[in-house]
Amino acid sequence: MNSKTLGMLAVIILYLIMMIAIGIYYSRKNKDVTDFYLGSRKLGPFVTAMSAEASDMSSWLLMGLPGVAYLSGVADAGWTAIGLGIGTYINWLIVAKRLRRYSVKANNSITIPEFFSNRYRDKSRLLLAISAIIIVIFFVPYTASGFAACGKLFSTLFDMPYFPAMVISAVVIVAYTALGGFLAASTTDLIQSIVMTIALIVVVIFGVSIAGGTDVVIENAKTLPGYLGMFTVHDAASGTSAPYGFLTILSTLAWGLGYFGMPHILLRFMGTENEEKLKLSRRIATVWVIISMFVAIFIGIVGYSASKAGQIELFTASSESETLIIRLAILLSNNGVLAVIFAGLILAGILACTMSTSDSQLLAASSSVSENLLRDVFGIKLTAKTSMLIARLTVVAIAVIGVVIAKDPNSSVFSIVSFAWAGFGASFGPVMLFALFWKRSNRNGALAGMVTGGAMVFIWKYLIRPLGGIWDIYELLPAFICGCIVIVIVSLVTAPPSDEIVKEFESV
Questions:
Q1: For residues 58 and 293, is the Cβ–Cβ distance under 8 A?
Q2: Selection from 277, 331, 355 nearest residue 59 by Cα
Q3: What are phi and psi of 311, to 5 degrees?
Q4: Which of 7, 65, 61, 74 lies closest to 233 in space, CA to CA?
Q5: Each residue's pLDDT tens digit, 414-437
Q6: Does the 3-411 domain belong in CATH 1.20.1730.10?
Q7: This model's pTM is above 0.85
């Protein structure tokens, strides 16, 4: 291991130590599970905004999105970014404030499954149980994708076996999450969003310089058929272009629908200290997300020119192109001590993307098991101390399963995230919107819509989408629509909600 690699490793280690120190600090502030899972609703507007978006972006921002742009050009990554930008703004605009207020009114709910159950007065606890199970089903592979990204980072950087590298990363993430809970995750997310921003800026400036300048980057991209078009997509394997049609654009924009059902983002809304300051949070979050995504796409385009200039190797598969920023960081480290530090920050930024999402997902999945299943569904009475212990053990158990799933180094971060995103968006998104905005919706409609949306994600992806043609649509869109339709139909053909539920809705 040479001095440059040791320098980058030192920066990463210092960063990881700081994250764990934050976990230790906040572990003293967790007096009960409300503190552990929701921080007693004490998040300020800036922390709320940046922790929500850092937990949203994941390793997908610095690895998945540039990797897609590198191979196929602007269209696929660009329309995805547009959909996510619109979804981010609308989610903050219509959901954040009302969910913050309603979750307090609905018996001070501290998890999404608990909010659904309390909102609809579900005495059977079936809504609670299914919500918790869905969270575990989709969060375990989502968390695994984060561990996989970390494993790729360290195995590429230090030429070490993938699996041990991935396990070490998982241990660090679990350590500060299990110690500090929601406040630690939110505070570290704020720091990680800053590190991610620095990484994006440094990479794009360095990438353009080694590629020969912005003009060269654009000219090189123009030589690839369909690469810069918003209505064509480049095929790296054949070197040709294909139309990016209306249905494909529509299904790609549907990524934005996923925000309405993301537990780790919705929890930030519930945990904010002052709902009146959510307007400021919305502006901060939206601006950061839009700029970050389009810089990440441009890095993918710059990466192709860097390959053509012989600075880095030419990638032909997504599992390779997703290491683009890692390769650029290693190349940057050849330019002196200061460059080594910046390269270390870039690599820490990749960790930041991964850790900021994984910690939030671990907390959401942990709360579903320990709070919603064990305590609420099975009725196991736990002391405050025992609840905290089980919460932390659950974090560890879920992480272990994630490590097992992530053991394959050839898995694509982008594809895993897209499926989990669809699962949450279709299962919880329609239910959340109708719970907040339609007082005639009832428990039966919510339950039927949740099951339909989640099931349709699997059905569409594995049975219908492979048919191709007009059926080749991102599974989130048809599953979300089906969930909405079922909620309306079932709610209207079954008994209306009680006067108590209606009065609570109107008071909110």
A1: no
A2: 355
A3: -80, -35
A4: 74
A5: 677 788 889 999 999 999 999 999
A6: yes
A7: no
